[in-house]
Structures are given as C-alpha cells and as structure tokens.
Design brief:
Blueprint: E1 32-36, H1 45-54, E2 55-58, H2 67-76, E3 84-87, H3 101-104, E4 113-116, H4 126-131, E5 135-137, H5 140-160, H6 162-174, H7 178-194, E6 202-206, H8 210-219, E7 227-231, H9 238-244, E8 246-248, H10 252-258, E9 261-264, H11 278-281, E10 288-292, H12 301-310, E11 313-318, H13 329-336, E12 353-355, H14 364-382
Helix pairs in contact: 5-8, 5-14, 6-7
Length: 403
C-alpha cells in the first residue's frame, strides 16, 4: 500500500505562515461562528484579536469537550450553526476522541473548514469531512523545519550509533563500577567499527511533502552530501526534483532496495494499518538504517525488532510509537543494551536504537506557527479565498448553491 502524500500540491520551501496575507479572500466576512476547541491561544494575540473581530469565537469548556458532553452539545446546537472548527494546540482540544462518522454526522451543515495544529491527521476522517463539504487543514507546514531538524539528528544517530556512545559514557553516573568503565572502553574501541559518515550514502524518503522536502534539502546539501531518493503516491514536479537533487522511485520496494537509510515522513492512514511490515522490512537493503518521524501506527514494531535482531537493519531511530506513551519493550532493550556481544559485531549489539518521546515537531516556534496557520486557514476559507494547507481537497464535494 503506498503512503499518503502530506500535501496534495508541493509547497515551496520558502513558504511560512507569516508570509501569507491575513485575509486571502475578497469577500468581507459576516459574523460567522468559529468553534475554538482547546486551550486559549498563547503566541499570536494580535492575530487572534483580528480573528475575534471577524467572527464570533466560542470556546467550549474542558468538560464540554469530553466526548459524551460534546456530542450532546452538538445535538442541542448549543453553539449555534458554526462555520469553522479551530484547534490551535496538539495537547488540548482532542478530549472528544476520534473524529469519526459518529461525531462528524452531528456537525451542523454550516461547517466549512476544520483547521488544526499538528501534521498528522489519523485521528480524523478527512475523507468523510470532505464528502460533507468541509475542508480539513493541518499545520504540518509550521512543524516542517522542527521535524526535519530532528530527523537530521536521528539520521546521524543511525550512522554513528549515538545511543551506544551516550549511554556508555553516562552509565557510570547511575552505578559507578568497573563494569561501567568497561562499557566506556568498549564503546571507545568498538563503535568505530560500526560507524560511518553519512556522505555518499543513499537516503530514501517515504513521502516528499513539506517535511520530506526539508530533510532532502538539509541532508542532500554539501554539508552532508547524501544522495536523495524518494517514493510518494504522486511524483513531484521536475523543477522540485532538480532543486532537491531527488530521484523518484515509483514503487516502495525499489526505494528500499537502494537506500542506506530510510526515513518515514508521511501521514498515517485513517484505517491505522501499518505501511512497514515483516514483508516490507525483508525488502530493505542488508544493514540499512531506519528512522520514523511520521506515526507509530505506520510501523509493525515487532517486525522491526525482528529485522534488527537478524541484522537486516543495522540501526533505527524512532520518535513516534505505536502504543504511545508505551514503548515497545523489545526496542527499548535494544536502546539501553550497552554490552557488546561477540566484539560488538553480532546482533542485537549495543545501543542500536534511538528512542524519543514524540518530540520532533515540539518547539516554541512550531506551536506559534500552529496557532497562526490555523487561523489563517479559517480566515482564508470563510472570506472566499483558498485554504493554505488543505489535505482533503480530493474528497471535497461542493455544497448546494455552489459554495
């Protein structure tokens, strides 16, 4: 199954929320209602003030956002016939749970746009929203630089075995002993035999949306000198491929066969099924590396652990996990095992997995961008303009009257 493309149309690398005009349309907005779910805004009070001048903004309480009460309020039309849903933060506003048919069916027919923080949208049925004439806009553009920077660190980690190097240096602080000193010496002597420079190696990107494009630009630059290949459901324009030095592979198997490091940077599927399974990992180039900055649900983590144990994959770095906040116990052992086996050359080997806590997009600048971009998307749609970061236009059905 091919990955979904993060953006229906490629977005130029230079585009940022701040570079967009506040109101893109030509129609003066009426006093339409916007439902603000989640915490109050924190970073863009000037834009929010203009937002409030253009629309009647209603923010349900935390209790009203719990699924049962939220659905009851929708049935009662407690918040009127609102035209937009605004979720500026990833950590709040999701108390009602998955936006599935049960929930979406209760929305008033006046809703035209749902703009949310975050790049992923596996928690919302964007197809069903589109079929009801509702544009869903994510905020992946605002997080793209932060995620790409984090991916760079993870790619380097898979080539240089940073979990082993860092763990062996700090284990003595936890339990000072001769064993800790042995771990330090072993890493100093043996990590070199397993480490490589990224330069000249092939970086395979699954997904070349905003995040994939920035990873390609960073790792394909003279600073790192990697060769970039990518797979996506739609090939990108030739001009973009030339700009990034990226070579398209029409099949995932073809990409995996040539890649020294594979980065997963595509949205999760609404059905929650994994893209990378035991069958897929068997197609990886022997000794290749794997990085996931997309969604944990896209990876069969036990199959990944099997591939690591066999040595089919030499190292991995995961920022996202299938059962967050729980981490796969087999991968956790591989991340914390600091004892070389058979001279450090046989699987599973020490510190072969880097694990982080879904941190890739988490910067102050990202959250500021989530707020701003979500408001700009709503302003654009409700004033007759075009959405900035829509993800479901291919499912969108026009409303009666041609709206």
């Amino acid at each position: 199954m091919p990955p979904a493309t993060p953006d229906p149309e490629p977005v130029p690398m230079a585009v940022s929320p701040a570079s967009q005009p506040l109101t893109q349309g030509t129609t003066k907005p009426k006093r339409l209602i916007v439902l603000h779910i989640g915490d109050p805004i924190k970073f863009n009070p000037k834009t929010y003030a203009e937002f409030g001048e253009a629309f009647d903004v209603i923010r349900p309480s935390a209790a009203e956002r719990e699924r049962g009460e939220f659905m009851r309020a929708l049935r009662e039309r407690r918040w009127g016939d609102f035209s937009a849903i605004f979720r500026p933060f990833w950590g709040s506003g999701g108390e009602m749970g998955k936006w599935d048919a049960e929930l979406i069916s209760l929305l008033p027919t006046t809703v035209r746009v749902f703009a949310s923080a975050g790049a992923g949208f596996d928690w919302v049925d964007t197809r069903l929203l589109g079929e009801r004439g509702i544009v869903y806009c994510n905020s992946g553009l605002a997080a793209a630089e932060a995620v790409a920077d984090f991916a760079v660190a993870m790619i380097i980690s898979t080539f240089r075995h940073l979990p082993w190097c860092m763990g062996a240096a700090t284990v003595g602080a936890i339990s000072p002993s001769s064993a800790a000193e042995d771990a330090f010496r072993a890493c100093h002597l043996l990590a070199t035999a397993a480490s490589h420079n990224p330069r000249g190696h092939v970086l395979g990107l699954i997904g070349l949306g905003n995040i994939g494009q920035q990873i390609a630009a960073k790792m394909g630059s003279p600073a790192f000198g990697m060769r970039i290949v990518y797979h996506d459901v739609e090939r990108k324009p030739a001009a973009l491929e030339i700009q990034l030095g990226a070579t398209f592979h029409s099949t995932l198997d073809s990409l995996l066969a040539v890649s020294d490091c594979v980065v997963l940077c595509t949205p999760a599927f609404p059905d929650g099924k994994p893209l990378l399974t035991a069958s897929t990992f068997s197609k990886f180039r022997r000794g290749a590396r794997f990085v996931n900055v997309a969604r944990g649900s896209l990876v069969d983590e036990d199959a990944l652990a099997d591939a690591l144990e066999r040595g089919d994959i030499s190292a991995a770095a995961l920022d996202v996990h299938a059962a967050e906040p729980r981490v796969n116990p087999r991968l956790l052992r591989m991340a914390t095992d600091l004892v070389p086996r058979d001279g450090g050359t046989s699987p599973p080997g020490p510190g072969r997995v880097m694990l982080t806590c879904h941190n890739a997009g988490g910067t102050v600048e990202t959250h500021e961008g989530f707020e701003e971009l979500s408001m700009r998307n709503i302003l654009a749609v409700l004033t007759g303009g075009e959405p900035i970061t829509p993800v479901n236009l291919r499912f969108l059905k026009k409303r009666e009257g041609g709206e």
